[in-house]
Amino acid sequence: MSNNIQITINNKDDIAVISIRGDVTATNKKLIYDAFQNDTVANSPKILLKFDKSCFIDSAGRATLIDIAIEGCKKGQKINICGLSNHFQKIFDLIGLTKCIFIFSSEDAAFTHLSK
After folding, report:
1. What whole-number distance in Å separates Cα of residue 8 and Cα of residue 21?
2. Which helix (H) or strand (E) holds 9?
3. Is 92 in contact with 98 (CB distance < 8 Å)?
């Protein structure tokens, strides 16, 4: 497990895309929160979290993503996630994160869903 993380933010049409490479952990959770406070993301009604397949998400990272998802839902943002391993897709489903966000195995499927 590495504490290195790379986060890039860009737009594709009307969708804010946050690309995450590396591990989402207690050490770097502030960087995740900061990404969601970025004007591009904070003001977007549609957000795609694009994870690198090899990322690791510890319990603090999962808690961070839950907080962000809840906040986004309160603001009326539509949030999709893609790129997670099957393991983390199952964990996110078990912890109830899929009640307010959608998880897709491919980026194309996530974009199609957000474009509706």
Report:
1. 9
2. strand 5-12
3. yes
SS3 assignment, position 76: coil
Instruction: Give the H/E segment covering residue 71.
Output: helix 59-74
Question: For all residues of the chain together, what is the average pLDDT?
Answer: 93
Which two three-digit tokens encode residue 101? Answer: 């966000």
pLDDT tens-digit profile of 39-86?
999 999 999 999 998 899 999 999 999 999 999 999 999 999 999 999
Query: How many domains does the chain fold into?
Result: 1
**pLDDT of the residue at 83:** 95
Determine contact, residues 59/90, Cβ cutoff 8 Å.
no
Contact indicator for 91, 62 with CB cutoff of 8 Å: yes
- Which of the four pLDDT bands, split at 50, 70 and 90, describes residue 3? low
Which domain CATH number covers 39? 3.30.750.24
Domain region containing 100: 5-11+18-114
CA distance 89 to 104: 9
Q: Which pLDDT score is estimated for 23?
A: 93
